[in-house]
Give the backbone structure.
Amino acid sequence: MRRPEKAQKIVEILDGLYPETPIPLDHVDPYTLLVAVMLSAQTTDKKVNQVTPQLFARASTPDAMARLEVAEIAQLIREIGLAPTKAKNLRAMSALLVERHGGAVPCSFEELEALPGVGHKTASVVMSQAFGVPAFPVDTHIHRLAARWGLSSGKNVETTEADLKRTFDRALWNRLHLQMIYFGREHCPARSHDAAGCPICSWASTGVATGRTSRESAGDSAR
């Protein structure tokens, strides 16, 4: 099957399975979304949603977060993986938002990625989910599925992102990002996957390895 035909069939299946794509991280504005995404690295969304209510009760704005001690932030998010590092980044990120952006989350990749603890994936999630800017953040689920479905070599997440952007229409990126995450969690796990019974792998799988690193594998296990 040619790639355009395969891509169209994948879109149709995902639209049928996930006609609505709610954002899995609880938030009320771009700042709380940014915080939640930063906390979600190598941690389940469920665990983040359990921790953020107490964190946001203490600090739900950049100014309030910047005023907290790193030790207090770390205590509030202690159940999250890499809590000490994330606490340090949250405080530094919040302080820079106040200093450089008047306490507002910037709506550009460059400015977001200049913040402590904010990489391209995190910036892409915020740009797509908070501001509606087309982006295709690649997490371990999407990286795995793109390789399994023959849409990318699976060499690295940068290559996967570029391949998916070339494959799918720009207007679909934000929706597909979430649909593929849901699909990866519910139908296409990293381990013990029944490809023959999978709604997409059963006909689209090419047998290409995902090229996952050990860190990415750990992330899959966490999610």
Residues 83-101 form the longest helix (19 residues).
